[in-house]
What does this fold into?
Amino acid sequence: MKRTTLFILLLFSLYAAKSQTHLKENEIKDYELQIGQMIRYLQETLNFIGDPANSAHEKDIIFKESYAKIFKDEHVQVEDDLDESRSTPINKDVQSYLKDIDFFYDNVNFTFDIQAISRILNDKGETSFKVSMVRTLSGQTITGNVVKNSTKRFLEINLDADKKELMIVSFYTTKPNVKDELYTWWNSMSKPWKDYFGKDRYIHDSVELSQVNLILENSFTTLTKQATAVQDSFMIVNHDTIAMDRIDELYGHRPDTVIFINDTIYQWINDTIITDLTPIYETLRQLTRLTEVNVSGNESITDLSPLSELSDLRILNCSNTNVSDINPIRNLNGIKELDISNTKITDISNLKYANIVQTFKADDNKIKDISIVEYFKDLNYLSLSNTEVSDISSLSGCENLKALNLSGTLVNDLTSMANLTHLHDINISNTYISDLSPLKGLENLNSLNIEGTQVTDLDGIADLKGLNEINFSNTKVSDLEALNGLPKLTIIYCDNSLVTRENADRFRNLNPDKLVINESEALTMWWNGLPSFWKTLLVEQTNTNMNPSKEELHSIINVRSLKLTHYIHDAEPVSRLTNLEYLDISGTKIDDLSPLSVLHNLKTLNINNTAINDLTPLSNNNNLRELHIQGTGVKSLKPLHQLENLRKIYAEGINLSSTEVYELRKEQRQVTVFYQSDELRLWWGNLNDTWRDIFAAHTLCNTNPTDEQLQTIVNIEELTIDPSYMVYTLEPLSQMYFIKKLVVNNNQIQDLSPLSDKYFLETLSAGGNPIDNIAPLSNLSLLKELNIENTPVSDLNPVTDLKNIKILNIGGTYVHNLKPLAGMMSLEDLSIVNTNVKNIQPLLSLSSMRHLKAYKTKIKRKSIELIKEKLPDLNVIYY
It folds into this structure.
C-alpha cells in the first residue's frame, strides 16, 4: 500500500527512550500522536483488504507479513465484529480476523473515530495505552446483503520505550476472557466432537473429558442415564388400540380387551459436579494446541466448527465423515496435510489462504472447481479421484507436485501438466483423456495409469526414460513399440486393450525383463498358478478364501502388509502385490529381491537373516523409508543412492564398510545407518568427560546415549575443539570415519596418527600444537585445506601426493624446503610467514596460486619479483 511508507517512518521515529514511569506530558502526547497514526494505518489496512479491486496476492502479503508492523504477533486476539447477527463474542487470531474480512464481504469500508486515549500503568511501572473509538462498518456481504453499523471498540497498545515501539496487543468490544471462551467453545461442541477430543483425557478422578456435557461457573455436568417407571393401559377395539382416557369415544361400546403396561424408560439427564475447573481448563488449552486431528470414518461428525480454535493444526483427516462445509477451517493456514475424501463437501474455494498444503486428498466428492489449487505452491500430492472436476488449468503453477490422481474425473486435457516436471506418479484412469503429448517432458515420471481412457497410442510418452509402470487396460491402444526404448519400464498392464497376443509376445522377446499383462484372465491364472503354500499364506493374511471371488482376488493383490513364512524360497508372487507398504521376508530362504522391484509403494522392508546379498532390485523403490538387512550378505549400498525417502537402515552384524555408508550418506544426507552399535557403545564407554562434552556441544545426546544418538555422533562431519578443552590426543576420533572438517588449534596434540584413516577429511586446522610429524596425513587425498602454523613441523614430504590441497598454512614452522609442493597444481593460497624458507623456485610452476604470504622469511626480493613475473595473478604479501 502506497500510503503506508509515511506511517512506518513516523512509527519508528519516537524520541529517545526514557524510563516509562517518568514519561513527561509532552512525551505522552507524542505517543498519543503515534497511536493516532497507527489507527489510521489500521483503518487503511482493513479497507485495502475489503476492496475487491486489490489482488489476492497483495492481501496475502498483509495476512502473512504486513500485519506485524502494528500487531505484537500472530497470537493477538481480535473480537469478531464482522457478523452482526452473532450474539456470543468470539475472539480470533489477528490473521484469521483479517482473512475473514475478505471472506465475509464483497466490499467493505471501515472508519475509526477515536474517542479517547488513556494511559495505563501496571504494578511494574510499565506503560500501555487503551484507545476507545467508534467503529463504523459499511459494505456488502458476499451474499448481497447491505451492511452498515457502528459500535464501540477498544484497542490495547503496549509501549516498549527502550525499542521505541508501540504494538497492538488486543482489539475488542467486550474484554476477552480466555477461560469463558474455552468453556463456550466446549459447551457449543457437538457430542461426537466431545467424544473425539475427550477420549482418554481424564479431568476428575475417573471422569473423562468426553463425559463433560456443560461447563458452568464452578461446576460441570455429565449426562447420566436415569430410569423412570411408566404405567399405562390401552383398550383393544376392532384390532386397534385406544388410550383409556378416550373411553368416552366408544359411545357405550365395551372394549374387546384392556392391556395394562408396567414399563421402564431411560432418559439422559445432566448430573452436576461441583469441583475445581482448573484441570478442565488446562486440558482444553492443550486441545487448542493440537497439531493433528483424524476423525476419518466417524459418520457422526457433520461439521468442522470446533477446529476453528486449533490454530496450530498441521494435519487434518476428515475423510468418510458427513462433513459438508469447509469454511470453519478457512483460516487454519498452517495445515500441510488435508484429507476430505468421501464427504459431502462440494466447494473448496475458501481454502485459498491455506497455501502451504503439501498433501491434499478430496476423492469421491462432488467437487467441480479446483481453481483454488493454484495458490498451493508447496503441493506435492493431490488426489481428486471420482470427483466432477473437468478443468485442471490451475495445476500449471503447482511445480512441486509429485503425485497426481485424477481417476474417474471429467478431465479431457493435460496441457496444464506440461511443466510439472517433478511428477512421479500420475493416475488419469477412466477420464476423457485422448492425447498424452503434454506429458512428453515429464522425465521424472515413474508410474502412469491411463486405464479406461480414450487414448489410442503411446507416442506421447515414448521418451519418458524413467517410466517404470504403465497401465492402459481397457483402451484402444494396439501397439507397444513406443515402450521399447524405456529402460526402467518393468510392468505393462494392457488387459482388454487392442494389444494382440502376438504383439505382446514380440515385445516380451525384445524385452525379457518387462512383465506384460494383457489377458483378461491374467489375475485368475496367476492365482491358479500359485503353490498351495503361497495361497494359504495370502488367504490367512487377507482373510479371504482358497477359492476367491474376483473381488477377493483384487483384495489379495491390494494387500498393504505381508510377512512371509520361513519355508518360502521365492518372492516372485509378491510382484503382483503392488500396493504393499510393509514386507517382512526375514528368516526365509529367499536370495533374490528382483520381484520387489515393482513394489513402488513399499515403505518398510525386512530381509534380516536371509541369503540376500544384492540390493539392486530396490533402486527404483522410491517410497522406501526403512530397511532391515541384518544377518545378510549385503556389502554394497549403492543401489539405494537415489532413494530420497529413505530414512533408516538397520545393518548390525554384517560386513558393511564405512566407505559404503559414507557414499550413501553423501547422496542422501537424511539416512542413518545403524551398523556398529556394540563397537560404538564400547567406544563411548572409554571416552573421558572432556571428549563427551566436546561431542555434546555438537549434537544432542543423553548421558547414556541411545544407539541412534551414538550413530549421530560418529556421523558428525565438522568438529571444532576449543583450546579451553586442552585436548592431548585425537584417539577418540577413531570411529569418526565421515569427518570432513576438523579444527583443533592451540591444544596439546602431538600425534596425528588417529587421522590416518580419515579419508574423507577435507579441512584440517591444527595450528599451535606440538606436532612435528605430518606423515599420518600422507594418504588423505581429499584434503583441500591444511593449517599447521606455529608447530615444530619441518618436513613437508608426507604431503607431496596430496594434489587437491588449495590452502596451506605453514607459517611459524621449521620448514625451509618447499620442493614437496612443486606438484601441487591446485594450490591457491600459501602462507610461509616466519619460516627459514629461502628458495621459492618450486612454486614457479603453480599457475593456480593466487595468494602468497612470505614476510619474515629469508627470501630475497629478486625471488619475489621473479615469481610475480611468472605468476601475474599472484597476490604477494612480502616485506
